[in-house]
Amino acid sequence: LDKVYNQVGKAKKEDLDSFTDEEIIELAGNLSNGVPIATPVFDGAAEIDIRKLLELADLPASGQMTLYNGRSGDSFDRKVTVGYMYMLKLNHLVDDKMHARSTGSYSLVTQQPLGGKAQFGGQRFGEMEVWALEAYGAAYTLQEMLTVKSDDVQGRTKMYKNIVDGDHSMDPGMPESFNVLVKEIRSLGIDIELVTD
Q1: Which of 149, 104, 114 is nearest to 130 (CA)?
Q2: Dihedral, 24, 25, 26, 28 alpha carbons, nearest 10
Q3: CA dihedral 52, 54, 58, 61 (to 10 degrees)
Q4: CA–CA–CA angle 178, 180, 183 (5° rounding)
Q5: Could you tell me the CA-to-CA distances from 169 to 43, 144, 166 in Å, in that order?
Q6: Cβ(110)–Cβ(177) under 8 Å?
Q7: φ and ψ at 23, to 5 degrees?
Q8: How far is CA 94 from CA 32, 105, 110, 121, 173, in A?
Q9: What is the mean pLDDT of residues 181-194?
Q10: CA distance to 35, 117, 132, 163, per residue, from 145 (Å)
Q11: Where are the domains of the chain?
Q12: pLDDT, averaged across the chain
C-alpha cells in the first residue's frame, strides 16, 4: 500500500507518510475485528462486488470455509458456507385460519360465493377436487357442489325454500358461469343456443 487519501474535512490529499505511527496503529485496530458492511435487502451489493471483497481479504471467492472436526482435528472433505442465520417465527395460527360459511354474499358477475375469510367467502372447489369426487363416483355430491352450492341461482332459491319447508329434495338448474361463457362466446359473434329434447 503506497498511498491513502483522505478528503473528508480537508481540501488537500494526505499521503500515508503524513500519518504518525500511533494514527496508523489506531486505524489498523479499527479493522482488526473485520469490516462492518450493511447493504439493502433487495437492491443490495452485486455478487461480483462481494467476490472482490472476499479476494481483497484473502478469502475464498466461494465464501466457503474449511471446517475441522473438533474431536479428531481432521478437516471435512467439503468446504462449508459459514455465516449468520436468522430464524423468524411465522405468524400463522390456526385461530386465524379457521373459517366457515352458511350463507353470504355472491359475486355479481358469476353469482358464485366470494372467496376469502375477509369477505366471509366460501371454499373453492377446484378442478382437482372435482376429479376426486369423480373418482369416488359421488355424482350427486358433485352435482350439488357445482350447482346449488355454487352459482345456480334458481336452484339455490328452490333449495333454500325446500329446506325451510322440511323437504330435502334438490332440483338443480343451469349454473350462471355457463351463461357467462355463452355470453362471452356470443360477444365474438358466435351464436349458441341450447336445444332441449
Answers
A1: 149
A2: 90
A3: -90
A4: 110
A5: 61, 11, 9
A6: yes
A7: -65, -40
A8: 49, 24, 30, 18, 37
A9: 92
A10: 63, 19, 13, 16
A11: 103-187
A12: 84
